[in-house]
Specification:
This is Putative oxidoreductase. With 288 residues, the protein is of the alpha/beta class. Helix content is 30%, strand content 25%. Helix 2 packs across helix 3, helix 2 packs across helix 8 (235-250) and helix 7 packs across helix 8 (235-250).
């Protein structure tokens, strides 16, 4: 095994949406999983064998055994395998969006797109725990809006009502995985010194033209976050965010809502449902 790589048997793996970021092909699907370490490579403490972990990888998690960097096999203490699998990339991503990039704090007015998704539901909870004054979400339809409200949103509007339903409002922070026209409209809703964090391109690669002069005049910022890149360039930073986020899950401050479980043989159908927008919260696949 490569140096510092533990080998873990998986009990459950998670499903992830296509964020329109390039993925080298061919590749084995699956970017996050939960299980126990069964073997370690050179340089890894042998005492980690048997440790329950939440694993973050760049692919290959839809398998019974996964090879992962030691730093990104995060000890999953105080949570069950189902929760640890659902934790995945979405929870540390939401943690970093709120705490590291947007730096949401007491009294901030926050707008979260994709409010009913895995990142959106976690981001709302982290923002609430950080003391945000008002948290508004945008979700795909009425069903998804109703679902999202349980996670700390003060208001959730549907995608087809955005941005008209928010006329006259402004926000200190916007979390946007959509892009395109949604990003343009969201920038217009930023308050002076507001921050918009782009972390996906679900709408496709439509160009968003921004005047630096306009941003400068109002003190607004357009920021980005790429969790996959962070995991490859600064894995220790990602792991630290994952540990902090997992501690908040373990103590009940926030919760990972696993809404669907699938057998490994049904993963194709599960991914199709996710792509069609039928999944609320987080879906996982049982491996064992």
């Amino acid at each position: 095994m490569p140096q510092t790589a533990p080998q873990a048997t998986m009990r459950a793996v998670a499903l992830d949406a296509d964020g329109r970021l390039p993925v080298p092909r061919p590749f084995v699907a699956g970017f996050e999983a939960a299980g126990r370490i069964v073997a370690v490579g050179p340089g890894v403490e042998r005492g980690r064998v048997g440790e329950p972990v939440a694993v973050l990888v760049g692919g290959g998690a839809h398998a019974e055994v996964v090879l992962a960097p030691a730093v990104l096999a995060v000890r999953a203490e105080g949570v069950d395998a189902r929760t640890a699998a659902g934790f995945g990339w979405s929870t540390p991503t939401a943690y970093d969006l709120v705490h590291t990039v947007a730096r949401i704090g007491p009294g901030d007015r926050v707008l979260i797109h994709g409010a009913a998704g895995a990142v959106g539901t976690m981001a709302a909870q982290f923002a609430a725990a950080a003391g945000a004054g008002r948290i508004t979400g945008v979700a795909g339809n009425d069903e998804r809006s109703h679902y999202a409200r349980q996670f700390g949103f003060h208001r959730v509007v549907t995608r087809d009502a955005f941005p008209d339903a928010l006329a006259g409002e402004s926000f200190d922070a916007v979390l946007d995985p959509v892009g395109g026209a949604t990003r343009v409209a969201s920038l217009a809703l930023l308050a002076p010194h507001g921050r918009l964090v782009a972390y996906g391109e679900i709408a496709g690669a439509d160009p968003v033209r921004v005047s630096v002069g306009d941003l400068l005049a109002s003190g607004r910022s357009l920021l980005t976050h790429n969790g996959d890149l962070l995991g490859r360039t600064h894995p220790a930073r990602l792991a630290e965010s994952a540990r902090r986020a997992l501690a908040l899950v373990a103590d009940g401050t926030v919760r990972v809502d696993v809404t669907a479980e699938h057998a490994l043989a049904d993963v194709g159908e599960a991914v199709a449902g996710l792509a069609a927008g039928r999944t609320l919260g987080k879906g996982i696949v049982r491996v064992r």
